[in-house]
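Troubleshooting: if your tokenizer reports a length mismatch, compare your output against this known-good record of 215 residues.
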Amino acid sequence: MTLGSSEKISNALIQLQRRLKKELKAEIKKGIRQEKTSVVGGSSTFTNHDPSNARRKTEIERMRMNYNLDEARSYLDKKDQDKHYKELKPEAKRDCFYMLALTLHMSHPNPSETNWFNFGFCTGYDEGEEGALRELYKRLLIGDKLFNDVPGPIPRMKNIQKATFTEFWKAYESGTMIQLMDLKGFRRERLQFPFLEEFFSSPPFDIGEKTEQRS
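Known-good structure output:
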């Protein structure tokens, strides 16, 4: 096999991977729309639940999320801190801000959300691996901030550094999330997820989408 043919095969595989990512993302969005439609139309999923309890839980969850969105604003540049998170541009910054807010909430996207796919949770075998990946993002973004006052038997590693929010969203946009994890000292942790490096080998958006976002 010649060098030229190897490059062609490599480029073809990269294009295939990007196309599959885009198609899966579209399918997830389609599923979200269908789920919303079924709820509005009176799906039997919630038939046996007390509506008042469901509303109360939803309201509590909304208040918690709003609190964490507000807390996450301190990680933004000053010019962005007064914006609604949906106004953040480019899309990569908006996705990463929401991911940061979830991390502060000790949570992560659920499978009905596109960010569950975009941030690699789809590469986990089960909920346990999803939780471990959430912990990796927590340490990458906020370090041990949430547990600084909690004593532990294992000393914290000195070579671990948290990433700035700007570093995080730019790595996400450019497809260099793995390099950022390694740079900050999380290589050993991210190697626990065998498919994560391949998943992040290309950016979440193709060139056309990036151009449209920045225009």
